[in-house]
Amino acid sequence: MEDLSKCVHCGLCVNACPTYAITGLEVESPRGRIHLARSIEEGRIPLTPAVQTHWELCLQCRACEAVCPSGVPYGRIMEHARAQLDAGAPAGRSGRRLRKLLLRQVVARPRVLSGVLAPVRLYANSPVRGLVRRTGLLRLLGRMGMAEMQLPKCIGTPVRPGKGLAKPESAATTAILFTGCVMGELFGEVHRATARVLARSGVTAEATAGQGCCGALHAHDGDIDFARTLARKNIDALGGGDEPIVVNSAGCGAAMKEYGELLSGDATYRDTAKAFAARVQDVTEFLAQLAPLPGGVFPHRVAYQDACHLAHAQRIRTQPRALLGALQGCELVETAGADMCCGAAGIYSIVQPAMSEALRARKAEQFARHRPDVIATANPGCQMQYNAATREAGIPARVMHVVEVIDEAQRAAGL
């Protein structure tokens, strides 16, 4: 109730909200959703299917937090609102139970996730993919067709805890690389690029064994207790030293920086969780502290798109742009709405395809207008969404993580 009472209904959050930008409806704004939550808390209205719909349409991008003068913790409010739905949703209970099962038993279990994604990786790298696309079959497959469009053009071998990274011969310092779940399975090339860029700056990246899913997807879906379980597992695996924990997935980094808050009620883990969270750094945050900044040659037009949980939750905006701007020949192209959510938002594009498509279309329109050579971002879900957006924009732009851009630039410079 204390969190809800912080909202003074000033309305500054409204224009920052992606769902309000699409619908123009007050109930699809942060202020509107908080009003619903407070009304339920005070017993003035029941939790109805309509309220559930408004809550579930929220992307939890936290753009509202970045502009709120009252410091309303909207992300935490929505996680607890979703927890109410998890405990007893008035509608769609079977779908929520299925989602919970998949997040717990597939996403959070490395061996199961590896087995599920192995055929996806095989398909993405095979000639069959081109044949499927040429037949036009994807248009008939609905959500599956859209998921296929989001896959990277080529998926490298996974990077998993304890293995998958080459170590430099010598390095001045060591950092722990957080490998995550889907990130390690589908974006192993980003992890390898991260390790190479760090190595050129004298830092060895260690993919320490025992780590796993950060729990962000579970917390966002209302399964907060299980998110706490995953947080404890990562703290046990990575919490024994003082090395920085470098994260190249904005959503994971935001969640891990909030482990202290997540476990504030756990007497055993409360202090270690705070210490752990203080060690977490986004890779762009970590690299931007180096002197000099990593250099290289990258003679391309680059449109950087802010990942929501990097810009709004972690408040990291200038560092990625500074890193790209330090590359020789790199022309930064600023597009309108670069910091507005693309509609990926974890599993949002699967469970809310219409709103996700509408937000992706706004990005595609900007890409078609500016025609960048490269679209750079700092989150795997965003990368997947932009793979589809470039096809919709009809442009041949490459979608890359910021560290992939730096890595390619350094190799071009012979570093």
Q: How would you sum up this structure, described in words?
A:
This protein folds into 4 domains: 2-91, Fumarate Reductase Iron-sulfur Protein, Chain B, domain 2, CATH 1.10.1060; 95-150, no CATH class; 173-288, no CATH class; 301-412, Rossmann fold (3-Layer(aba) Sandwich), CATH 3.40.50. 54% of the residues lie in helices and 7% in strands. It contains 24 helices and 8 strands. It has helices at residues 2-5, 18-23, 30-41, 49-56, 63-67, 74-88, 93-107, 110-124, 127-135, 143-150, 182-186, 188-200, 216-220, 224-238, 250-257, 259-262, 270-279, 283-288, 308-313, 318-325, 348-351, 353-370, 380-393, 402-412, and strands at residues 173-177, 203-206, 245-247, 280-282, 301-304, 331-332, 374-377, 398-401. The chain has a 4-stranded parallel sheet with strand order 2-1-3-4. Strands 6-5-7-8 form a 4-stranded parallel sheet, with helices on both faces.
**How many individual domains?**
4
Integer-rounded radius of gyration: 21 Å
Query: Total number of helical segments?
Result: 24
What coarse outline follows from CA principal-axis ratios? Answer: globular
The percent of residues in helical segments reads: 40-55%
Mean pLDDT: 92
Task: Tell me what portion of residues adopts beta-strand conformation.
Answer: 5-15%
Order of strands in the sheet with most strands: 2-1-3-4
Low-confidence stretches: none
End-to-end separation in angstroms reads: 55 Å
